[in-house]
Design goal:
Blueprint lengths: L7 H6 L1 H6 L35 E10 L8 E7 L2 E10 L1 E4 L5 E11 L1 E9 L10 E2 L6 E3 L4 E9 L8 E6 L3 E2 L6 E7 L9 E6 L2 E7 L4 E5 L6 E9 L11 E7 L3
């Protein structure tokens, strides 16, 4: 049986409320009252109805956070591109089938007439840790015909709250000779955003070496040849839409004659 967190009865009763309130997290448009397309009471499975009713189509998908965890009670609304103030259908995410037929959280199904739609995601106004209001695929329209099911797929949302990065720095070696060049690797992580994307700024003794893009949460840079002595190698994550800029982390590299 479907198991949305707020219960099926509450979910159905929320349909008109969803449409009457603006999406959370700074959404710029308000919706008007329409019937909710959330899971019907008594349904044994979101896949119980194999096909949409005649002349209707389903828009289906799953909502995740930036850590890849499925999310319940996210507002999903379908609009015609010509009228972004009035949704054709709204729903809350709940427990439903994934592509393998297993029931997982974060599923949504919107029932719409045939036509072109853009899909918007956001949090309820009273959400404790809201997501930013987001259009699927940058507001690219989806076209559906009657009797069809369009799978939108996984949609990852970013929270309004930015998280703090955890930055690590490591040299390939701590001692080099004058004509040798060292290499530094910087890692940036947070359990709520996987992987962290963006760039890190690398400096040596306060002089900028360059900004290096993260790949799977890590960035590697070659250091310049340095004179004899001890040098401070530093790095700072520059931030992105989900993760704040980080503090400077530093290690030391020694240049020795032998």
């Amino acid at each position: 049986m479907l198991t949305p967190r707020r219960g099926l009865a509450a979910l159905a009763a929320t349909g008109s409320l969803l449409a009457a309130l603006p999406l959370g997290a700074g959404a710029g448009t308000s919706a008007t009252a329409v019937p909710s397309t959330a899971a019907p009471a008594g349904a044994s499975s979101a896949a119980a109805d194999a096909q949409p009713p005649a002349g209707k189509a389903w828009l289906e998908g799953w909502v995740l956070d930036r850590a890849g965890d499925p999310q319940l009670d996210v507002v999903v609304a379908a609009y015609r591109p010509s009228d972004l103030g009035k949704p054709v259908a709204t729903a809350l995410t709940y427990a439903g089938p994934n592509v393998h037929g297993d029931e997982v959280d974060g599923y949504f199904r919107l029932q719409v007439p045939k036509g072109r739609y853009v899909i918007r995601f956001g949090s309820l106004p009273d959400a404790d840790d809201p997501f930013r209001s987001t259009w699927a695929d940058g507001k690219a329209p989806v076209r559906v015909s009657g009797g069809t099911v369009e799978v939108v797929g996984d949609v990852a949302l970013t929270r309004v709250r930015k998280v703090a990065p955890r930055t690590g720095i490591e040299l390939d070696r701590t001692r080099v000779k004058p004509r040798q060049r060292g290499e530094v690797t910087v890692t940036v992580s947070n359990p709520e955003v996987r992987p962290v994307t963006g760039a890190v700024r690398v400096t040596v003794d306060g002089r900028r070496v360059g900004d290096v893009a993260l790949r799977r949460g890590a960035a590697t840079a070659d250091l310049p040849r340095l004179g004899l002595g001890t040098h401070r190698v530093s790095a700072q994550f520059l931030g992105n839409d989900a993760v704040r800029a980080g503090k400077v982390v530093t290690t030391t590299l020694k240049v020795v004659r032998r």
